[in-house]
Amino acid sequence: MAAILALVIPFLLLFQTSPVSAIPNVTAIRIGQGDCSAYPNSYFHAGDNADAFIFRPDQADNSSINGLHTRIDGQNLFVYESSTIDSTIFCCDRGGTILDGMGVQSLLLSTNLKDSELGYLSQGIKPETYAHEVDGVRLDGVFLGSANVTTWAFRRAGEDYYQVRLLVPGSANAKVGDLLDGEVKGFLKVLPP
Q1: Closest CA relative to residue 79, chosen from 141, 134, 133, 144
Q2: Which residues form the signal peptide (predicted)?
Q3: Which of 25, 62, 77, 150 could potentially form a cystine with 184 if both were Cys, beta carbons 3.0 to 4.6 Å apart?
Q4: What is the pLDDT of residue 29?
């Protein structure tokens, strides 16, 4: 019996699927220096405004999060598993400020290093746009971050949604990349709706 199990178990492990993967080690390169030119639907001549874009988790350690909808609920950005919830649409104006779809509320990173969440705030840090390179090869897409950090933590906060925070130095733990219990790493990709 032990001999049969020794042959069968490795074979079964070949067919095991897991939603867990590792995010790539990327080099973040800032693009759209302080304006809206790197966002989808940017006006080429102005460069300081862009219409309609959304955020989606990308290349997360838990691949089941990739591509899910993001939405502002209350004042903060969350990731939702439900396909019946639409992503919040954003625009860019005022020299690189991300605004709600009506162009009224500013989407900023909290200055509270314990959370570094994105939300509609009266004061905070403007998120920045980045390209990613792996071994000198540029990946497709535009990614959101700040201060050359584009890695985000996703943590289940309810039955069907996740909290999102940027892993900036000093946030929650002492160094970039430190996760709290239940968090996984990933990126936020900027896409047209």
Answers
A1: 144
A2: 1-22
A3: 62
A4: 95
How far is C-alpha 28 from the chain's CA centre? 13
pLDDT the model gives residue 46: 59
Residue 9 has a pLDDT of: 43
Q: What angle do CA 77, 80, 82 make, to 5 degrees?
A: 150
CB 140 within 8 A of CB 147: no
What three-state secondary structure class fits 83? coil
**CA 170 – CA 188 distance, rounded (Å):** 20
Residue 71 is which amino acid? R
Using DSSP's 3-state secondary structure scheme, residue 52 falls into strand
Average pLDDT, consecutive stretches of 10 residues, N- to C-terminus, the chain (193 residues): 46 42 85 86 73 95 96 95 93 88 91 83 93 94 94 94 87 59 94 95
pTM as predicted: 0.83
- Specify the residue for token string 């178990």: 9
Pair of tokens at residue 121: 């705030």
Contact 115, 108 (CB under 8 A): no
